[in-house]
Each structure stands twice: as structure tokens, then as C-alpha cells.
Design a protein that fits this description.
Layout: H1 2-6, H2 19-27, H3 31-53, H4 59-73, H5 84-103, H6 112-115, H7 119-122, H8 128-131, H9 133-139, H10 143-154, H11 159-166, H12 170-192
Helix pairs in contact: 2-3, 3-4, 3-5, 4-5, 9-12, 10-12, 11-12
């Protein structure tokens, strides 16, 4: 009976661990925990990177860099600062903008309004109804705001290229993008609150 009491309990299966527990295991350099986190988030992180970076962005390379960063910095995660999921997508967003800055000629090509945008508003959603909310909100913008945003952020054009394509001054383009992002943020906030659009 005493021997049975001393029998060690099996370790908790990786699949049963929470996201936070996986990050804690990664902080202790458990490679299987990183693999499990990749299985859980890899596809969604890739979709998010493609949303932010555009068609020609090196999305797969960026995902590898994201998970390398998670491996190196998992010990910095704190449950008191928010959910593990939000932390992972925040790191992803920062990595995408780091790569964009390195590849584009000027820092201003990465709009600071979009860079500060709360991560959950552009993060891939888990159901089809939420997944279409961003595109639906974009379609509700005036054409002079909608087109610059679609070209600059989804068409993988710089601000200068977008301004030339639309035949408008660069300053005008930036003003329209900023106004459009503000309207888009409001529309998405109403959508999340359950207010019909």
C-alpha cells in the first residue's frame, strides 16, 4: 500500500496543458511544448502574418521567426499581463512590422495607427461570422478611404505606390488612410459589442 502511494503520477499530457502552461514549459526549454504550441497556433499565426504583410510578404519565414522568439522569450510571459494567445499575436505583429521596416525604404511606410491597433481586431478569428467582419467593415467605408487601405495593407503596396496608383498626393492618401482606420476601428468595436451594422 505504501509503495502504491509512492508511485509517481504521470506528467500532464501536452495536449491537456493550457496555452500559459505550454509557455511555461517552453521557458524551461521543453522542445515538445514548443511543437505543441506550434500545432495549436501555427496556422492562425500564418494567417495573421499574411493579413498584415500582404501577398508577397515572406510569411512562412516570419512564422519561423515568431516561434523562435517565443522559444527565446517565453520566460517573459506573465499571466497577469493578459492571455497567452494575445501575447503570442502581439509578438507576431511586432515581428511583422520589424520585417516590413527592414524591407521598405522608409519607416513611414508602416502606418503607426495600424501598428498600435489592438491585436485582437486584426487577429484571425475562429468562426466564419467573425472572420468576415473585417472585410465587411472595410466595404462600409467611403471609396476614397476603402481603396487606399485595401491597396496599402492588402495589396502589398507602399504609400507612395498607392498614391501614384490612385493619382492623389501622398499627404492626401495618408490622411484618408488615417481617417479610414479610425472609422474601421469604430465599426469593428460596434460589431464586437453586438451592435448591428
Amino acid at each position: 500500500m505504501a509503495d502504491a502511494a509512492k508511485t509517481p503520477q504521470p506528467a500532464k499530457c501536452l495536449d491537456d496543458r493550457t496555452d500559459s502552461e505550454l509557455l511555461q514549459a517552453i521557458a524551461c526549454h521543453e522542445e515538445l511544448a514548443l511543437e505543441s504550441l506550434f500545432d495549436r497556433f501555427g496556422g492562425r499565426v500564418l494567417a495573421y502574418v499574411r493579413t498584415l504583410g500582404g501577398r508577397s510578404f515572406p510569411a512562412e519565414d516570419a512564422v519561423q521567426e515568431v516561434f523562435l522568439t517565443l522559444w527565446q522569450k517565453a520566460a517573459l510571459f506573465s499571466t497577469g499581463a493578459g492571455s497567452a494567445e494575445a501575447w503570442i499575436f502581439t509578438i507576431t505583429r511586432h515581428k511583422v512590422f520589424d520585417i516590413l521596416r527592414a524591407h521598405r525604404s522608409t519607416k513611414e511606410d508602416v502606418d503607426p495607427d495600424l501598428e498600435r491597433w489592438p491585436v485582437q481586431e486584426l487577429q484571425p478569428q475562429t468562426n466564419a461570422e467573425d472572420a468576415i467582419s473585417l472585410d465587411k467593415a472595410l466595404s462600409m467605408l467611403p471609396a476614397d478611404q476603402q481603396m487606399p487601405i485595401r491597396l496599402a495593407y492588402m495589396g502589398d503596396l507602399t504609400y507612395e505606390e498607392t498614391a501614384r496608383k490612385l493619382g492623389i498626393p501622398l499627404g492626401t492618401l495618408k490622411s484618408r488612410v488615417r481617417s479610414g482606420l479610425g472609422t474601421l476601428r469604430t465599426l469593428l468595436a460596434f460589431s464586437k459589442a453586438g451592435v448591428p451594422s
